[in-house]
């Protein structure tokens, strides 16, 4: 008989239930309805059973936040708040519903010292039947270190020191500031900046296989550096070059400012002018 994909929704896992384990925070558990993430990793098959749940906990702000995801994306959003909220969306699959449920039960979320990661049966047995995506709300001024494998990283409305790295996924920054370093192996980089100039140390972002783009207001001030190995550079701004060839540029726009650097090996780099406010 053909097996169908089933989504676990046991009555015991109501939104008000509290999940605890040694060395972990208290997590509120809910089902996956209305939870989605564009940076998520997901495996889907009509021939497997599945389990999906969301665990949510609050951490004390203070120590820098570190999040590590294997088979899952990371989304961090800065807000006017004094604590950290971590949401872990856990998806597991198995050849029976009991197997999928057991994989979720055996998945633990570690949060000690604001170092967030998932321990899954995949980590122990080398199988690939779990995905954990993190959605984290932090104070607007905060430092983060985000590491992913098989999932994208996005950061929105945050100012601070950011170290971002993923192996198979893109990196997205929107309305951020501070000292930012981003690296991805297989994925694109997309940065959207606001205001009149970059606040903080600047941006150094690289990808090996993928495009890189930055979108800036028309009156923006910065020092721009862009480079490609196998690809081309496109720009919407009128530029006066300090250094230029078909593979590398270095120039100021507006009054100059912190360095915004984009580089790719296999792909293009685009420096785009944002749309004017209507």
What does it look like?
- With 278 residues, the protein is mostly beta strands.
- Helix content is 5%, strand content 54%.
- The chain contains two helices and 23 strands.
- The protein has helices spanning 97-105, 121-125, and strands spanning 17-19, 27-31, 49-60, 65-70, 74-79, 83-94, 108-110, 115-119, 130-139, 144-149, 153-156, 159-168, 171-174, 177-186, 189-192, 202-209, 212-216, 222-230, 233-235, 240-245, 248-253, 259-266, 269-273.
- The protein is elongated, with a radius of gyration of 21 Å.
Helix content: under 10%
What percentage of amino acids are in beta strands?
over 45%
Number of strands: 23
End-to-end distance = 58 Å
Instruction: Spell out the helices and strands N to C.
Output: EEEEEEHEEHEEEEEEEEEEEEEEE
The radius of gyration is 21 Å
Average of the residue pLDDT scores: 83
Net shape: elongated
Largest beta sheet, briefly? 12 strands, mixed
Strand order of the largest sheet: 1-2-3-6-9-5-11-13-15-17-23-19
Brief write-up:
This protein has about 280 residues and is mainly β. About 5% of the residues lie in helices and about 55% in strands.
Q: What's the SSE blueprint?
A:
Elements: E1 17-19, E2 27-31, E3 49-60, E4 65-70, E5 74-79, E6 83-94, H1 97-105, E7 108-110, E8 115-119, H2 121-125, E9 130-139, E10 144-149, E11 153-156, E12 159-168, E13 171-174, E14 177-186, E15 189-192, E16 202-209, E17 212-216, E18 222-230, E19 233-235, E20 240-245, E21 248-253, E22 259-266, E23 269-273
Parallel strand pairs: 4-8, 4-10, 5-9, 5-11, 10-12, 11-13, 12-14, 13-15, 14-16, 15-17, 16-22, 17-23, 18-22, 19-23
Antiparallel strand pairs: 1-2, 2-3, 3-6, 6-9, 7-8, 18-21, 20-21
């Amino acid at each position: 008989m053909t097996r169908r994909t089933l989504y676990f929704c046991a009555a015991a896992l109501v939104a008000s239930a509290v999940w605890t384990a040694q060395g972990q925070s208290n997590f509120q558990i809910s089902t996956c309805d209305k939870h989605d993430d564009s940076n998520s990793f997901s495996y889907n098959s009509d021939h497997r059973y599945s389990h999906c749940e969301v665990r949510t906990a609050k951490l004390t702000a203070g120590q820098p936040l570190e999040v590590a995801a294997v088979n899952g994306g990371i989304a961090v959003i800065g807000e006017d708040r004094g604590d950290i909220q971590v949401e872990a969306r856990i998806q597991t699959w198995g050849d029976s519903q009991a197997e999928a449920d057991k994989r979720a039960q055996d998945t633990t979320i570690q949060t000690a010292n604001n170092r967030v990661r998932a321990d899954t049966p995949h980590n122990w047995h080398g199988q690939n039947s779990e995905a954990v995506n993190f959605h984290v709300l932090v104070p607007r001024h905060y430092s983060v270190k985000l590491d992913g494998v098989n999932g994208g990283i996005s950061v929105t409305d945050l100012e601070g020191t950011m170290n971002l790295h993923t192996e198979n996924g893109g990196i997205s920054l929107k309305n951020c500031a501070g000292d930012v370093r981003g690296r991805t192996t297989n994925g694109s980089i997309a940065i959207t900046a606001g205001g009149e100039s970059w606040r903080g140390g600047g941006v150094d972002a690289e990808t090996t296989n993928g495009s890189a783009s930055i979108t800036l207001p028309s009156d923006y001030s910065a020092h721009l550096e862009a480079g490609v190995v196998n690809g081309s550079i496109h720009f919407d701004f009128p530029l006066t070059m300090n250094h230029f060839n078909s593979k590398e540029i270095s120039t100021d726009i507006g009054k100059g400012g912190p360095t915004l650097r984009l580089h790719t090996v296999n792909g293009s780099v685009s420096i785009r002018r944002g749309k004017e406010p209507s």
